[in-house]
Amino acid sequence: MKQIIRITIGLVISCLVAGAVMGGVFTVTDKAKKRNEHLAVQETMLGLLGYKDAKQVPADLKLYSIYRYIITDGSGSQYLGYLVPVAEGNETGYVLLKLDLQGKFISKKNIDISPEKAREAPERESALKAVLKPPISFRYADEAIVATLGKKRLAYLLPGEFLGFKTTIKAMLALDPSFGIVGLDILEHEEDPGLGGEIEQEYFKNQFKDKSYDRITKLKVIKEPLPDEYKKYLEKSKWQKGAFSKEQIATIRKKYQDKDIYAITGATISSKAVTDGVKGMIRKFAYRMGKLEAVIVNEKIPAVFL
Amino acid sequence: MAVTKKTNKQLVLDGLLSENPIFRLALSMCPAVGISSSVMNGILLGIAVLFVQVFSSCTISLLKDYIHPRIRIPTYTLVIATWVTVIDLVLAAYVPVAYKAMGIFVKLIVAFAIITMRLEVFACKNPVVPSFWDGVGMGTGFMFGMVTLGTVREFLGTGGLLGHDLIGTRPLLFFILPLAGFFCVGFIMAIFNYVEIVYKRMKRKRSIAQ
Description:
The structure holds two protein chains of two kinds.
Chain A: H1 2-48, E1 61-72, E2 78-88, E3 91-99, E4 105-111, H2 115-118, H3 121-131, E5 137-149, E6 152-163, E7 168-175, E8 181-188, H4 202-205, H5 213-217, E9 221-222, H6 228-234, H7 246-257, E10 261-262, H8 268-298
Parallel strand pairs in A: 9-10
Antiparallel strand pairs in A: 1-2, 1-5, 2-3, 3-4, 5-6, 6-7, 7-8
Chain B: H1 8-16, H2 29-34, H3 39-63, H4 72-94, H5 96-108, H6 113-123, H7 128-158, E1 160-161, E2 164-165, H8 178-209
Antiparallel strand pairs in B: 1-2
Helix pairs in contact in B: 1-7, 3-4, 3-5, 3-6, 3-7, 4-5, 4-6, 6-7
C-alpha cells in the first residue's frame, strides 16, 4: 500500500513538473511564435500572388479580409454574419451583414472598427458584442481575403484546413475571380517526412495551378508516375535560366492543365486528402461568395472590393 | 550494467560503429525504413534526434536517484516529451527558418525506441558526463545510419544527391519506395555483421600467432 502511494505521488509530481516546464516555455515563446506565423502567412500570400519579395509588391495592391461568423439568436435559429470592409469616404470601415442560412439578406449594421484592429480576433469580438447583445451569441467561422490591384479584383486568398493522413493540414489557396486556382501553398502539416510530407514540395502543390473551377469540381487523384518534363516544369524554383522557352511553357501548361493530380509515390492518402480538401474549400467558398456578392449588389453596400 | 568504464571517446565511437543504433542495436527501425528516402531527411532527423537524446540523457542521469524504479519508463517518456515540446516551441519562436525545415521531424521523436532504450540502459546508471557522451555517440550514430541509408536510396532511386541531379536518369525508382527501406537496412546490417566477423577472426589469428 505504501509503495502504491509513493508511486502515485512520484508520478503526479513528475507530470506536474513536466507540465510546468512545457507551460512555462509556451508562455515565453508564444508571442514570438505567433508573430512568426503571421509573417509566414503574409509572405505566403504575396508569394501566391507572384511577388517573391516585398520590393516587387505594387503600391496599389490591397488585401481586404472578410470574416464569417455564425450567429445564434435567443430562439436558437442560426444566421450567417459577414464582416465586410466598406469604403467610407477615404476611410475603410466594416459592416456586419446578417444573412439567413439560404443566403437571404436580413439586416445590416455598422461596426465601429478599423481594418488594422479587425485583424485581432479579440478586438473584432468586442466590436461585435457592442451590436450583438445577449441572448444573441456568435462564433467565428473563417476568413477570406480579397486582393485588389487598383480598381481591379486580382484574386481571393483562402486560408483553410482539412484532415490529412495524420492530423489537420493548414493550407492557403489563391483563386482568380472566377474561382480557378492561381496557387496552393501548404502552411503547416504533420505528415510523415519523405512520404506524405512531400505535399509541400513544388512538384505536388504546383499541379493544382491553372485548374479552372469546372475542372476542380471533377478533380481526381491518379496513381501514375509523374512525367519527367512535367516534374521539371513544376519545380519552378529549380529552373535554370533558359531551361524552358516561352512556347515550351505554353505547350506543357496546355498539355497538363486538364490532367488529374498525380499522387505522390508512397503517399496516396495524403495526396487524396489535399485534393479533396482543396476541392471542398473552393466549392464552399464559391457558393458563399456568390450569395454574399448578390446581397452586396442588391443592397448597394459600398464594399471596397467592388 | 554497472557504471561504465569506457572513456568518452570510446563512448562516441561505440555509438557510431560497434553499437550503431540502426545497424547494430536494431532500434528505431520505423524512421530508418520510412524516412530515409533522401540524404536531407536523414540529416535533419539525425540532428533532431541528437539534440533530444543528449538533453534527455543528461536530465535522466541527473534525476536518476529520485526516480522510483517502478515508474521509470513513464518518467522517461515524460522527459522526452518535455524536451521535444520545448525544442519545438523554441525553434518555432526564435529560429523560424530551422523550424520550417525541421518541425515535422522534431514532432516525430517522442515515440522513438532508441532514446527510451538509451535512457534505460545507460543514462539511469551513469553520471552526467558519460551520459552526455553516450547521447552524443548515439545521436551521431543514428544520423550516420540515416545518412548512409539516405545516400544509397536517394542515389539509386532518383539518380541524385541532396536534390541535385548527378547522372541524369533514375536508375531504380524502387529504392525511394518505403519497401526498399527494409532491403537497404538489411543489406547494410549484413555488411556490418560481416565486418565484425572478419575483424574478430583477424583478432583471434593475431592472438594465436603471439
